[in-house]
Predict the structure of DNA polymerase I.
Amino acid sequence: GDLFAAPAPTIERATAPLPVALRAEPQGDLFAAAAAETHAASGPTLEQLELRVHEVRARAVHGLALVPVVFGEEPRHAALVGLALAARDGTAAYLPLAHEGGPNFGIDQVRGWLAPVFADPLVPKVAPDLKSAGHTLRAHGIELEGGTFDLHVASFVCDPERDHSLERLAADVLGVSLASIEPAQVRGRSRTGPGATPVAHAAAAGERMAAACWPLEAALTKQLEAREQWKLYSALEQPLIEVLSRMERAGIALDVPVLKTMSEDASREIATLETKLHEIAGEPINLASGQQLGRVLFEKLGLPAKKKTKTGWSTDSEVLDELALVHEFPRLLLEWRALAKLRSTYLDALPLAVDPADGRVHTTFEQTGAATGRLSSWNPNLQNIPMRTPLGRAIRRAFVAAPGHVLVGADYSQIELRVMAHLSKDPQLIEAFLGGEDIHASTARRIFKIEGDVPGELRGRAKVVNFGVMYGMGARSLAQQMGIELKEAKEFIESYFSVYAGVRAFLDRTVEEARERGYVETLLGRRRWLPALRHGGGLERSMAERAAINTPIQGSAADLVKQAMLNVQNALRLGSRARLLLQVHDELLLECPEAEASFVTEMVRREMEGCYPLSVPLTVSAGTGATWFDVH
Protein backbone atom coordinates (compact mmCIF):
# COMPACT_ATOMS: atom_id res chain seq x y z
CA GLY A 1 0.00 0.00 0.00
CA ASP A 2 0.86 3.68 0.04
CA LEU A 3 2.52 3.53 3.47
CA PHE A 4 5.26 1.29 2.14
CA ALA A 5 5.64 2.74 -1.36
CA ALA A 6 9.01 4.25 -2.20
CA PRO A 7 8.86 8.04 -1.96
CA ALA A 8 9.92 10.31 -4.79
CA PRO A 9 13.67 10.94 -4.59
CA THR A 10 14.89 13.80 -2.48
CA ILE A 11 18.30 15.41 -2.79
CA GLU A 12 20.41 13.92 -0.01
CA ARG A 13 22.81 16.33 1.67
CA ALA A 14 26.41 15.15 1.93
CA THR A 15 27.50 14.50 5.52
CA ALA A 16 31.27 14.06 5.02
CA PRO A 17 33.56 16.96 6.07
CA LEU A 18 34.16 19.50 3.31
CA PRO A 19 37.61 20.37 1.93
CA VAL A 20 39.21 23.42 3.51
CA ALA A 21 38.70 25.42 0.30
CA LEU A 22 34.93 25.05 0.71
CA ARG A 23 34.52 25.72 4.43
CA ALA A 24 34.76 29.50 4.25
CA GLU A 25 31.96 31.15 2.32
CA PRO A 26 32.99 33.88 -0.12
CA GLN A 27 32.72 37.27 1.51
CA GLY A 28 30.29 39.71 -0.11
CA ASP A 29 29.80 40.16 -3.82
CA LEU A 30 33.00 38.96 -5.43
CA PHE A 31 32.10 40.68 -8.65
CA ALA A 32 31.01 44.12 -7.52
CA ALA A 33 32.71 46.95 -9.37
CA ALA A 34 34.36 48.44 -6.29
CA ALA A 35 35.71 45.09 -5.14
CA ALA A 36 37.00 44.39 -8.64
CA GLU A 37 39.60 47.16 -8.47
CA THR A 38 40.63 46.33 -4.89
CA HIS A 39 41.16 42.62 -5.54
CA ALA A 40 42.80 43.20 -8.92
CA ALA A 41 45.43 45.29 -7.19
CA SER A 42 46.06 42.81 -4.38
CA GLY A 43 45.61 39.60 -6.33
CA PRO A 44 48.04 36.67 -6.30
CA THR A 45 51.24 36.81 -8.31
CA LEU A 46 52.09 34.25 -10.98
CA GLU A 47 54.76 32.85 -8.66
CA GLN A 48 52.16 32.24 -5.94
CA LEU A 49 49.75 30.67 -8.43
CA GLU A 50 52.52 28.45 -9.82
CA LEU A 51 53.35 27.14 -6.36
CA ARG A 52 49.69 26.15 -5.94
CA VAL A 53 49.73 24.37 -9.30
CA HIS A 54 52.81 22.32 -8.38
CA GLU A 55 51.27 21.47 -5.01
CA VAL A 56 48.15 20.12 -6.72
CA ARG A 57 50.22 18.25 -9.31
CA ALA A 58 52.26 16.55 -6.58
CA ARG A 59 49.05 15.30 -4.95
CA ALA A 60 47.24 14.40 -8.18
CA VAL A 61 48.35 10.75 -8.16
CA HIS A 62 45.13 9.91 -6.28
CA GLY A 63 42.92 11.93 -8.61
CA LEU A 64 42.48 15.30 -10.25
CA ALA A 65 39.33 17.41 -10.52
CA LEU A 66 39.28 19.95 -13.33
CA VAL A 67 36.97 22.81 -14.26
CA PRO A 68 37.92 24.62 -17.48
CA VAL A 69 36.77 28.24 -17.62
CA VAL A 70 35.89 28.95 -21.25
CA PHE A 71 34.42 31.63 -23.45
CA GLY A 72 32.31 30.29 -26.32
CA GLU A 73 29.54 27.72 -26.67
CA GLU A 74 31.38 25.16 -28.80
CA PRO A 75 34.01 23.41 -26.61
CA ARG A 76 36.23 22.51 -29.59
CA HIS A 77 36.68 26.20 -30.44
CA ALA A 78 36.10 27.91 -27.09
CA ALA A 79 38.77 30.20 -25.68
CA LEU A 80 40.38 28.67 -22.59
CA VAL A 81 40.31 31.59 -20.15
CA GLY A 82 41.51 29.62 -17.15
CA LEU A 83 41.71 26.20 -15.57
CA ALA A 84 40.73 25.27 -12.02
CA LEU A 85 42.24 22.12 -10.49
CA ALA A 86 41.88 20.23 -7.22
CA ALA A 87 43.56 17.14 -5.79
CA ARG A 88 41.42 14.59 -3.98
CA ASP A 89 42.41 16.04 -0.59
CA GLY A 90 40.91 19.40 -1.61
CA THR A 91 44.16 21.21 -2.42
CA ALA A 92 43.18 23.54 -5.25
CA ALA A 93 44.78 25.87 -7.79
CA TYR A 94 43.73 28.20 -10.56
CA LEU A 95 45.67 28.84 -13.76
CA PRO A 96 44.75 32.12 -15.48
CA LEU A 97 45.34 31.94 -19.23
CA ALA A 98 43.43 34.75 -20.90
CA HIS A 99 42.28 37.29 -18.33
CA GLU A 100 42.24 40.93 -19.34
CA GLY A 101 45.05 42.72 -17.56
CA GLY A 102 46.56 39.41 -16.38
CA PRO A 103 48.60 38.04 -14.89
CA ASN A 104 48.37 34.98 -17.16
CA PHE A 105 50.36 31.83 -17.74
CA GLY A 106 51.29 30.84 -21.28
CA ILE A 107 49.61 27.72 -22.64
CA ASP A 108 53.06 26.20 -23.34
CA GLN A 109 53.92 26.53 -19.65
CA VAL A 110 50.69 24.81 -18.66
CA ARG A 111 51.26 22.00 -21.16
CA GLY A 112 54.73 21.43 -19.76
CA TRP A 113 53.48 21.21 -16.19
CA LEU A 114 50.25 19.29 -16.65
CA ALA A 115 50.10 17.44 -19.98
CA PRO A 116 51.70 14.24 -18.55
CA VAL A 117 49.21 14.19 -15.65
CA PHE A 118 46.20 14.85 -17.89
CA ALA A 119 47.32 12.14 -20.35
CA ASP A 120 47.94 9.54 -17.62
CA PRO A 121 45.01 7.07 -17.68
CA LEU A 122 45.96 5.86 -14.20
CA VAL A 123 45.20 9.26 -12.66
CA PRO A 124 41.41 9.41 -12.10
CA LYS A 125 39.81 12.58 -13.47
CA VAL A 126 36.57 14.18 -12.25
CA ALA A 127 34.82 17.10 -13.94
CA PRO A 128 31.37 18.66 -14.24
CA ASP A 129 31.44 17.81 -17.97
CA LEU A 130 34.26 15.48 -19.03
CA LYS A 131 33.38 15.49 -22.73
CA SER A 132 33.49 19.27 -23.07
CA ALA A 133 36.62 19.49 -20.93
CA GLY A 134 38.35 16.96 -23.16
CA HIS A 135 37.44 18.86 -26.33
CA THR A 136 38.66 22.19 -24.95
CA LEU A 137 41.94 20.82 -23.61
CA ARG A 138 42.62 18.89 -26.80
CA ALA A 139 42.10 22.05 -28.84
CA HIS A 140 44.94 23.55 -26.78
CA GLY A 141 47.28 20.59 -27.26
CA ILE A 142 46.50 18.70 -24.05
CA GLU A 143 45.11 15.14 -24.17
CA LEU A 144 42.74 14.07 -21.41
CA GLU A 145 42.73 10.40 -20.37
CA GLY A 146 41.42 8.61 -17.31
CA GLY A 147 38.06 10.35 -17.00
CA THR A 148 36.27 8.35 -14.31
CA PHE A 149 33.42 10.53 -13.06
CA ASP A 150 31.21 13.09 -14.79
CA LEU A 151 29.13 15.09 -12.32
CA HIS A 152 26.46 16.15 -14.84
CA VAL A 153 25.89 12.63 -16.15
CA ALA A 154 25.92 11.07 -12.67
CA SER A 155 23.39 13.63 -11.43
CA PHE A 156 21.21 12.98 -14.49
CA VAL A 157 21.18 9.23 -13.88
CA CYS A 158 20.20 9.86 -10.24
CA ASP A 159 17.36 12.18 -11.18
CA PRO A 160 16.91 13.40 -14.77
CA GLU A 161 14.47 16.12 -13.71
CA ARG A 162 16.80 18.18 -11.52
CA ASP A 163 19.30 20.93 -12.37
CA HIS A 164 22.73 19.33 -13.00
CA SER A 165 24.85 22.48 -13.01
CA LEU A 166 27.86 22.52 -10.69
CA GLU A 167 26.51 25.55 -8.81
CA ARG A 168 23.11 23.94 -8.20
CA LEU A 169 24.57 20.58 -7.18
CA ALA A 170 26.97 22.24 -4.75
CA ALA A 171 24.08 24.16 -3.18
CA ASP A 172 21.65 21.23 -3.02
CA VAL A 173 24.02 18.39 -2.15
CA LEU A 174 26.82 20.12 -0.22
CA GLY A 175 25.02 23.19 1.09
CA VAL A 176 27.80 25.28 -0.44
CA SER A 177 27.44 28.47 -2.46
CA LEU A 178 29.69 28.70 -5.52
CA ALA A 179 30.19 32.02 -7.27
CA SER A 180 30.26 31.84 -11.06
CA ILE A 181 33.23 33.30 -12.89
CA GLU A 182 31.16 35.85 -14.74
CA PRO A 183 32.07 39.11 -16.45
CA ALA A 184 32.74 41.94 -14.04
CA GLN A 185 30.98 45.29 -14.27
CA VAL A 186 33.76 47.83 -14.12
CA ARG A 187 32.99 51.58 -13.96
CA GLY A 188 29.71 51.16 -15.79
CA ARG A 189 31.29 49.30 -18.71
CA SER A 190 29.79 45.87 -19.36
CA ARG A 191 32.50 43.44 -20.41
CA THR A 192 31.82 40.17 -22.17
CA GLY A 193 33.24 36.80 -21.15
CA PRO A 194 34.93 35.45 -18.02
CA GLY A 195 38.23 36.91 -19.22
CA ALA A 196 36.95 40.27 -17.99
CA THR A 197 36.88 38.96 -14.42
CA PRO A 198 39.98 39.89 -12.38
CA VAL A 199 42.31 36.97 -11.70
CA ALA A 200 41.88 37.30 -7.93
CA HIS A 201 38.14 36.73 -8.25
CA ALA A 202 38.52 33.94 -10.78
CA ALA A 203 41.11 32.16 -8.64
CA ALA A 204 38.94 32.33 -5.51
CA ALA A 205 35.83 31.12 -7.34
CA GLY A 206 37.64 28.58 -9.53
CA GLU A 207 39.44 26.87 -6.66
CA ARG A 208 36.13 26.44 -4.82
CA MET A 209 34.53 24.98 -7.97
CA ALA A 210 37.30 22.41 -8.43
CA ALA A 211 37.41 21.55 -4.73
CA ALA A 212 33.64 20.95 -4.76
CA CYS A 213 34.00 18.21 -7.37
CA TRP A 214 35.39 15.64 -4.92
CA PRO A 215 32.69 15.74 -2.22
CA LEU A 216 30.13 15.84 -5.03
CA GLU A 217 31.65 12.70 -6.54
CA ALA A 218 31.38 10.94 -3.18
CA ALA A 219 27.82 12.13 -2.55
CA LEU A 220 26.57 11.30 -6.05
CA THR A 221 28.19 7.86 -5.87
CA LYS A 222 26.23 7.20 -2.68
CA GLN A 223 23.03 8.43 -4.34
CA LEU A 224 23.62 6.19 -7.36
CA GLU A 225 24.17 3.18 -5.11
CA ALA A 226 21.18 3.97 -2.88
CA ARG A 227 18.89 4.29 -5.91
CA GLU A 228 20.36 1.15 -7.53
CA GLN A 229 21.65 3.20 -10.47
CA TRP A 230 25.40 2.67 -10.06
CA LYS A 231 25.57 -0.19 -12.55
CA LEU A 232 23.68 1.82 -15.19
CA TYR A 233 26.03 4.76 -14.66
CA SER A 234 29.33 2.88 -14.47
CA ALA A 235 28.63 0.25 -17.15
CA LEU A 236 26.63 2.31 -19.67
CA GLU A 237 26.59 6.09 -19.27
CA GLN A 238 30.17 6.72 -18.10
CA PRO A 239 31.84 4.61 -20.85
CA LEU A 240 29.52 6.22 -23.42
CA ILE A 241 31.08 9.64 -22.74
CA GLU A 242 34.30 8.64 -24.52
CA VAL A 243 32.36 7.10 -27.43
CA LEU A 244 30.37 10.31 -27.92
CA SER A 245 33.54 12.38 -27.62
CA ARG A 246 35.16 10.39 -30.43
CA MET A 247 32.06 10.80 -32.60
CA GLU A 248 31.98 14.55 -32.05
CA ARG A 249 35.66 14.85 -32.95
CA ALA A 250 35.20 12.74 -36.08
CA GLY A 251 32.30 14.74 -37.52
CA ILE A 252 30.94 13.96 -40.97
CA ALA A 253 31.86 15.41 -44.36
CA LEU A 254 29.32 17.69 -46.04
CA ASP A 255 28.97 18.27 -49.78
CA VAL A 256 28.05 21.97 -49.68
CA PRO A 257 27.37 22.34 -53.46
CA VAL A 258 24.64 19.67 -53.18
CA LEU A 259 22.85 21.73 -50.52
CA LYS A 260 23.34 24.93 -52.53
CA THR A 261 21.63 23.36 -55.54
CA MET A 262 18.81 22.03 -53.36
CA SER A 263 18.37 25.47 -51.78
CA GLU A 264 18.08 27.10 -55.21
CA ASP A 265 15.49 24.51 -56.28
CA ALA A 266 13.57 25.04 -53.03
CA SER A 267 13.62 28.82 -53.54
CA ARG A 268 12.04 28.44 -56.97
CA GLU A 269 9.35 26.14 -55.59
CA ILE A 270 8.69 28.54 -52.69
CA ALA A 271 8.27 31.42 -55.15
CA THR A 272 5.82 29.34 -57.22
CA LEU A 273 3.78 28.49 -54.11
CA GLU A 274 3.74 32.14 -53.04
CA THR A 275 2.38 33.17 -56.45
CA LYS A 276 -0.38 30.55 -56.24
CA LEU A 277 -1.31 31.56 -52.70
CA HIS A 278 -1.49 35.26 -53.62
CA GLU A 279 -3.70 34.40 -56.61
CA ILE A 280 -6.12 32.40 -54.46
CA ALA A 281 -6.15 35.15 -51.83
CA GLY A 282 -6.82 37.72 -54.54
CA GLU A 283 -4.13 40.00 -53.13
CA PRO A 284 -0.46 39.93 -52.09
CA ILE A 285 -0.27 38.99 -48.40
CA ASN A 286 2.45 38.37 -45.85
CA LEU A 287 2.41 34.58 -45.47
CA ALA A 288 4.21 34.88 -42.13
CA SER A 289 1.45 37.09 -40.67
CA GLY A 290 -1.12 35.15 -38.68
CA GLN A 291 -3.53 38.09 -38.76
CA GLN A 292 -3.42 38.42 -42.56
CA LEU A 293 -3.74 34.66 -43.02
CA GLY A 294 -6.70 34.57 -40.62
CA ARG A 295 -8.45 37.30 -42.59
CA VAL A 296 -7.99 35.42 -45.88
CA LEU A 297 -8.87 31.98 -44.51
CA PHE A 298 -11.87 32.83 -42.38
CA GLU A 299 -13.26 36.02 -43.91
CA LYS A 300 -12.45 35.99 -47.64
CA LEU A 301 -12.53 32.21 -48.18
CA GLY A 302 -15.17 31.56 -45.51
CA LEU A 303 -13.43 28.52 -44.04
CA PRO A 304 -14.57 27.41 -40.56
CA ALA A 305 -12.49 29.01 -37.78
CA LYS A 306 -11.33 26.46 -35.22
CA LYS A 307 -9.70 28.25 -32.29
CA LYS A 308 -8.67 31.71 -31.20
CA THR A 309 -5.43 33.18 -29.88
CA LYS A 310 -4.79 36.55 -28.21
CA THR A 311 -4.19 38.18 -31.61
CA GLY A 312 -6.95 36.51 -33.59
CA TRP A 313 -7.87 33.21 -35.18
CA SER A 314 -5.25 30.45 -34.95
CA THR A 315 -3.49 29.39 -38.16
CA ASP A 316 -1.23 26.76 -36.61
CA SER A 317 -0.46 23.46 -38.34
CA GLU A 318 -3.20 21.57 -36.47
CA VAL A 319 -5.84 23.99 -37.78
CA LEU A 320 -4.38 24.02 -41.30
CA ASP A 321 -4.23 20.20 -41.42
CA GLU A 322 -7.99 20.06 -40.91
CA LEU A 323 -8.73 22.88 -43.35
CA ALA A 324 -6.44 21.33 -45.98
CA LEU A 325 -8.96 18.52 -46.35
CA VAL A 326 -11.53 20.95 -47.75
CA HIS A 327 -9.58 23.75 -49.49
CA GLU A 328 -6.44 24.22 -51.60
CA PHE A 329 -5.17 27.40 -49.86
CA PRO A 330 -4.33 25.80 -46.47
CA ARG A 331 -2.85 22.78 -48.27
CA LEU A 332 -0.51 24.99 -50.31
CA LEU A 333 0.27 27.08 -47.23
CA LEU A 334 1.39 23.95 -45.36
CA GLU A 335 3.64 23.05 -48.31
CA TRP A 336 5.08 26.58 -48.32
CA ARG A 337 5.79 26.49 -44.58
CA ALA A 338 7.43 23.07 -44.73
CA LEU A 339 9.62 24.06 -47.66
CA ALA A 340 10.60 27.42 -46.15
CA LYS A 341 11.53 25.74 -42.86
CA LEU A 342 13.54 23.07 -44.67
CA ARG A 343 15.47 25.72 -46.56
CA SER A 344 16.25 27.91 -43.55
CA THR A 345 16.89 25.14 -41.02
CA TYR A 346 18.92 22.74 -43.15
CA LEU A 347 19.71 23.75 -46.74
CA ASP A 348 21.05 27.19 -45.81
CA ALA A 349 22.12 26.54 -42.21
CA LEU A 350 24.10 23.29 -42.53
CA PRO A 351 26.84 24.79 -44.75
CA LEU A 352 27.43 27.42 -42.05
CA ALA A 353 28.10 24.61 -39.55
CA VAL A 354 31.01 23.18 -41.56
CA ASP A 355 34.34 23.43 -39.75
CA PRO A 356 36.71 25.09 -42.26
CA ALA A 357 39.63 23.17 -40.74
CA ASP A 358 38.39 19.80 -42.01
CA GLY A 359 35.26 20.41 -44.11
CA ARG A 360 33.16 18.37 -41.69
CA VAL A 361 30.14 19.04 -39.51
CA HIS A 362 30.67 18.32 -35.81
CA THR A 363 27.43 18.00 -33.88
CA THR A 364 27.24 17.87 -30.08
CA PHE A 365 25.48 14.89 -28.50
CA GLU A 366 23.47 15.68 -25.39
CA GLN A 367 23.55 12.84 -22.86
CA THR A 368 21.53 14.58 -20.15
CA GLY A 369 18.53 15.86 -22.09
CA ALA A 370 15.62 13.41 -22.27
CA ALA A 371 14.33 11.75 -19.10
CA THR A 372 13.89 8.51 -21.06
CA GLY A 373 17.65 8.40 -21.65
CA ARG A 374 17.46 9.15 -25.38
CA LEU A 375 20.36 11.06 -26.86
CA SER A 376 19.77 14.34 -28.65
CA SER A 377 22.09 16.48 -30.74
CA TRP A 378 22.54 20.19 -31.32
CA ASN A 379 24.77 22.71 -33.04
CA PRO A 380 23.62 21.46 -35.51
CA ASN A 381 20.74 19.12 -34.68
CA LEU A 382 21.27 16.14 -36.98
CA GLN A 383 18.55 14.01 -35.37
CA ASN A 384 15.64 16.07 -36.71
CA ILE A 385 16.46 15.96 -40.41
CA PRO A 386 13.00 15.22 -41.85
CA MET A 387 12.45 11.83 -43.44
CA ARG A 388 8.75 12.01 -44.38
CA THR A 389 9.18 14.00 -47.60
CA PRO A 390 11.37 13.26 -50.64
CA LEU A 391 13.20 16.58 -50.26
CA GLY A 392 13.78 15.97 -46.56
CA ARG A 393 15.25 12.54 -47.28
CA ALA A 394 17.34 14.00 -50.11
CA ILE A 395 19.21 16.20 -47.61
CA ARG A 396 21.07 13.04 -46.62
CA ARG A 397 22.74 13.07 -50.06
CA ALA A 398 24.87 15.97 -48.81
CA PHE A 399 26.43 13.86 -46.03
CA VAL A 400 29.25 12.03 -47.74
CA ALA A 401 32.13 9.67 -47.08
CA ALA A 402 35.72 10.89 -47.21
CA PRO A 403 37.74 9.94 -50.32
CA GLY A 404 38.59 6.24 -50.32
CA HIS A 405 35.91 5.56 -47.70
CA VAL A 406 32.26 4.54 -47.56
CA LEU A 407 29.50 5.20 -45.07
CA VAL A 408 27.95 2.23 -43.26
CA GLY A 409 24.42 2.69 -41.94
CA ALA A 410 22.75 0.24 -39.57
CA ASP A 411 19.17 0.73 -38.41
CA TYR A 412 17.13 -1.24 -35.88
CA SER A 413 13.83 -2.52 -37.24
CA GLN A 414 10.95 -1.47 -34.95
CA ILE A 415 13.05 -1.74 -31.80
CA GLU A 416 10.42 -0.13 -29.57
CA LEU A 417 7.67 -2.52 -30.69
CA ARG A 418 10.04 -5.44 -30.11
CA VAL A 419 10.79 -4.14 -26.62
CA MET A 420 7.04 -3.86 -26.00
CA ALA A 421 6.57 -7.47 -27.14
CA HIS A 422 9.32 -8.57 -24.74
CA LEU A 423 8.00 -6.58 -21.78
CA SER A 424 4.32 -7.42 -22.31
CA LYS A 425 4.92 -11.09 -23.18
CA ASP A 426 1.92 -10.78 -25.51
CA PRO A 427 1.74 -14.08 -27.44
CA GLN A 428 0.34 -12.53 -30.63
CA LEU A 429 3.07 -9.88 -30.83
CA ILE A 430 5.79 -12.39 -30.03
CA GLU A 431 4.45 -14.82 -32.64
CA ALA A 432 4.45 -12.09 -35.30
CA PHE A 433 8.05 -11.07 -34.59
CA LEU A 434 9.31 -14.66 -34.31
CA GLY A 435 7.69 -15.35 -37.67
CA GLY A 436 9.44 -12.38 -39.28
CA GLU A 437 6.11 -10.77 -40.19
CA ASP A 438 5.59 -7.13 -41.16
CA ILE A 439 4.23 -6.13 -37.75
CA HIS A 440 1.99 -3.34 -39.07
CA ALA A 441 0.47 -5.57 -41.75
CA SER A 442 0.08 -8.31 -39.14
CA THR A 443 -1.73 -5.91 -36.80
CA ALA A 444 -3.99 -4.77 -39.65
CA ARG A 445 -4.91 -8.38 -40.49
CA ARG A 446 -5.79 -9.11 -36.87
CA ILE A 447 -7.72 -5.88 -36.20
CA PHE A 448 -9.56 -5.67 -39.53
CA LYS A 449 -9.83 -9.47 -39.98
CA ILE A 450 -8.19 -9.47 -43.43
CA GLU A 451 -6.90 -12.50 -45.29
CA GLY A 452 -3.97 -12.10 -47.69
CA ASP A 453 -2.51 -8.76 -48.77
CA VAL A 454 -3.22 -5.70 -46.62
CA PRO A 455 -4.16 -2.43 -48.38
CA GLY A 456 -1.65 0.36 -47.74
CA GLU A 457 -4.24 2.58 -46.07
CA LEU A 458 -5.15 -0.07 -43.48
CA ARG A 459 -1.49 -0.88 -42.82
CA GLY A 460 -0.93 2.84 -42.23
CA ARG A 461 -3.79 2.96 -39.74
CA ALA A 462 -2.47 -0.09 -37.93
CA LYS A 463 0.96 1.57 -37.75
CA VAL A 464 -0.53 4.66 -36.11
CA VAL A 465 -2.31 2.48 -33.53
CA ASN A 466 0.82 0.36 -32.87
CA PHE A 467 2.91 3.42 -32.05
CA GLY A 468 0.06 5.36 -30.45
CA VAL A 469 -0.48 2.65 -27.85
CA MET A 470 3.20 2.85 -26.83
CA TYR A 471 2.95 6.58 -26.27
CA GLY A 472 -0.27 6.37 -24.26
CA MET A 473 -2.29 7.99 -27.04
CA GLY A 474 -6.00 8.26 -26.28
CA ALA A 475 -8.93 7.97 -28.68
CA ARG A 476 -9.17 11.73 -29.20
CA SER A 477 -5.52 12.08 -30.26
CA LEU A 478 -5.82 9.00 -32.43
CA ALA A 479 -8.90 10.41 -34.16
CA GLN A 480 -7.09 13.68 -34.91
CA GLN A 481 -3.99 11.94 -36.24
CA MET A 482 -5.96 9.55 -38.46
CA GLY A 483 -8.61 12.06 -39.51
CA ILE A 484 -11.48 9.87 -38.31
CA GLU A 485 -14.44 10.21 -35.94
CA LEU A 486 -13.90 9.78 -32.19
CA LYS A 487 -16.25 6.77 -32.10
CA GLU A 488 -14.23 5.01 -34.81
CA ALA A 489 -10.95 5.74 -32.98
CA LYS A 490 -12.35 4.21 -29.79
CA GLU A 491 -13.37 1.11 -31.75
CA PHE A 492 -9.84 0.85 -33.21
CA ILE A 493 -8.28 0.93 -29.76
CA GLU A 494 -10.75 -1.64 -28.41
CA SER A 495 -10.08 -3.91 -31.38
CA TYR A 496 -6.34 -3.53 -30.82
CA PHE A 497 -6.55 -4.51 -27.16
CA SER A 498 -8.89 -7.40 -27.89
CA VAL A 499 -6.19 -8.79 -30.20
CA TYR A 500 -3.21 -7.87 -28.02
CA ALA A 501 -4.69 -8.48 -24.57
CA GLY A 502 -1.20 -8.98 -23.14
CA VAL A 503 -0.28 -5.43 -24.13
CA ARG A 504 -3.30 -3.98 -22.32
CA ALA A 505 -2.49 -5.99 -19.20
CA PHE A 506 1.14 -4.82 -19.35
CA LEU A 507 0.20 -1.14 -19.72
CA ASP A 508 -2.31 -1.30 -16.86
CA ARG A 509 0.16 -3.17 -14.67
CA THR A 510 2.96 -0.73 -15.46
CA VAL A 511 0.94 2.33 -14.44
CA GLU A 512 -0.29 0.65 -11.25
CA GLU A 513 3.20 -0.50 -10.23
CA ALA A 514 4.58 2.97 -10.97
CA ARG A 515 1.91 4.48 -8.74
CA GLU A 516 2.87 2.12 -5.91
CA ARG A 517 6.67 2.38 -6.28
CA GLY A 518 6.88 5.99 -7.42
CA TYR A 519 8.97 5.18 -10.49
CA VAL A 520 9.20 3.13 -13.69
CA GLU A 521 12.23 1.20 -14.86
CA THR A 522 13.85 0.22 -18.16
CA LEU A 523 15.33 -3.15 -19.07
CA LEU A 524 18.79 -1.97 -18.01
CA GLY A 525 17.47 -0.56 -14.74
CA ARG A 526 17.15 3.17 -15.53
CA ARG A 527 14.57 4.69 -13.20
CA ARG A 528 12.27 7.61 -13.87
CA TRP A 529 10.48 9.02 -10.86
CA LEU A 530 6.88 10.10 -11.39
CA PRO A 531 5.55 11.68 -8.17
CA ALA A 532 2.60 13.20 -10.07
CA LEU A 533 1.08 9.70 -10.33
CA ARG A 534 0.22 9.94 -6.65
CA HIS A 535 0.19 13.64 -5.87
CA GLY A 536 -0.51 15.48 -9.12
CA GLY A 537 -3.69 17.09 -10.39
CA GLY A 538 -5.73 15.75 -13.30
CA LEU A 539 -3.54 16.99 -16.17
CA GLU A 540 -0.28 16.30 -14.32
CA ARG A 541 -1.42 12.81 -13.41
CA SER A 542 -2.52 12.09 -16.97
CA MET A 543 0.88 13.17 -18.31
CA ALA A 544 2.63 11.04 -15.69
CA GLU A 545 0.55 8.00 -16.71
CA ARG A 546 1.64 8.47 -20.32
CA ALA A 547 5.25 8.77 -19.16
CA ALA A 548 4.83 5.58 -17.11
CA ILE A 549 3.68 3.74 -20.24
CA ASN A 550 6.23 5.24 -22.59
CA THR A 551 9.43 5.28 -20.51
CA PRO A 552 9.94 1.52 -20.04
CA ILE A 553 9.55 1.08 -23.81
CA GLN A 554 11.29 4.12 -25.27
CA GLY A 555 13.82 4.25 -22.44
CA SER A 556 14.70 0.57 -22.85
CA ALA A 557 15.14 1.05 -26.59
CA ALA A 558 17.40 4.06 -25.93
CA ASP A 559 19.48 2.06 -23.46
CA LEU A 560 19.86 -0.81 -25.94
CA VAL A 561 21.06 1.59 -28.65
CA LYS A 562 23.63 2.97 -26.21
CA GLN A 563 24.75 -0.55 -25.33
CA ALA A 564 25.09 -1.30 -29.04
CA MET A 565 27.27 1.81 -29.45
CA LEU A 566 29.59 0.55 -26.70
CA ASN A 567 29.70 -2.90 -28.29
CA VAL A 568 30.52 -1.47 -31.72
CA GLN A 569 33.23 0.84 -30.34
CA ASN A 570 34.82 -2.06 -28.44
CA ALA A 571 34.81 -4.16 -31.61
CA LEU A 572 36.44 -1.32 -33.56
CA ARG A 573 39.33 -1.29 -31.08
CA LEU A 574 40.37 -4.72 -32.36
CA GLY A 575 42.01 -3.19 -35.41
CA SER A 576 39.45 -1.66 -37.75
CA ARG A 577 40.01 1.86 -39.08
CA ALA A 578 36.25 2.50 -39.10
CA ARG A 579 34.80 5.31 -37.00
CA LEU A 580 31.38 5.84 -35.49
CA LEU A 581 30.07 9.18 -36.78
CA LEU A 582 26.41 9.58 -35.84
CA GLN A 583 23.62 8.10 -33.78
CA VAL A 584 20.19 9.14 -34.98
CA HIS A 585 17.38 7.55 -32.94
CA ASP A 586 17.66 3.83 -33.82
CA GLU A 587 20.40 4.19 -36.45
CA LEU A 588 24.20 4.16 -36.27
CA LEU A 589 26.31 5.68 -39.05
CA LEU A 590 29.97 4.80 -39.49
CA GLU A 591 32.74 5.64 -41.96
CA CYS A 592 35.32 3.09 -43.00
CA PRO A 593 37.90 2.45 -45.73
CA GLU A 594 36.30 0.87 -48.81
CA ALA A 595 38.29 -2.33 -48.25
CA GLU A 596 36.68 -2.81 -44.81
CA ALA A 597 33.08 -2.18 -45.90
CA SER A 598 31.91 -5.80 -45.87
CA PHE A 599 33.62 -6.65 -42.57
CA VAL A 600 32.36 -3.50 -40.80
CA THR A 601 28.79 -3.96 -42.06
CA GLU A 602 28.58 -7.49 -40.70
CA MET A 603 30.32 -6.55 -37.46
CA VAL A 604 27.92 -3.68 -36.78
CA ARG A 605 24.89 -5.84 -37.54
CA ARG A 606 26.18 -8.57 -35.22
CA GLU A 607 26.96 -6.22 -32.33
CA MET A 608 23.65 -4.36 -32.61
CA GLU A 609 21.51 -7.49 -32.88
CA GLY A 610 23.31 -9.14 -29.98
CA CYS A 611 23.29 -6.21 -27.56
CA TYR A 612 20.55 -7.70 -25.33
CA PRO A 613 18.69 -11.05 -25.18
CA LEU A 614 15.05 -10.18 -25.90
CA SER A 615 12.38 -12.85 -26.28
CA VAL A 616 12.00 -11.68 -29.89
CA PRO A 617 14.88 -11.08 -32.32
CA LEU A 618 16.43 -7.65 -32.64
CA THR A 619 16.87 -7.21 -36.38
CA VAL A 620 19.07 -4.64 -38.08
CA SER A 621 19.12 -3.52 -41.69
CA ALA A 622 22.59 -2.40 -42.75
CA GLY A 623 24.08 -1.09 -45.96
CA THR A 624 26.90 0.96 -47.42
CA GLY A 625 27.10 3.92 -49.76
CA ALA A 626 28.97 7.03 -50.79
CA THR A 627 26.32 9.18 -49.07
CA TRP A 628 24.05 8.83 -46.07
CA PHE A 629 21.10 8.65 -48.47
CA ASP A 630 22.62 5.65 -50.25
CA VAL A 631 23.16 3.40 -47.22
CA HIS A 632 19.49 2.34 -46.98
About this structure: The first helix runs from residue 20 to 23. Confidence is low (pLDDT under 50) at residues 1-6, 27-40, 184-190. The chain is about 50% helix and 15% strand. The domain at 416-524 is CATH 1.10.150.20 (DNA polymerase; domain 1).
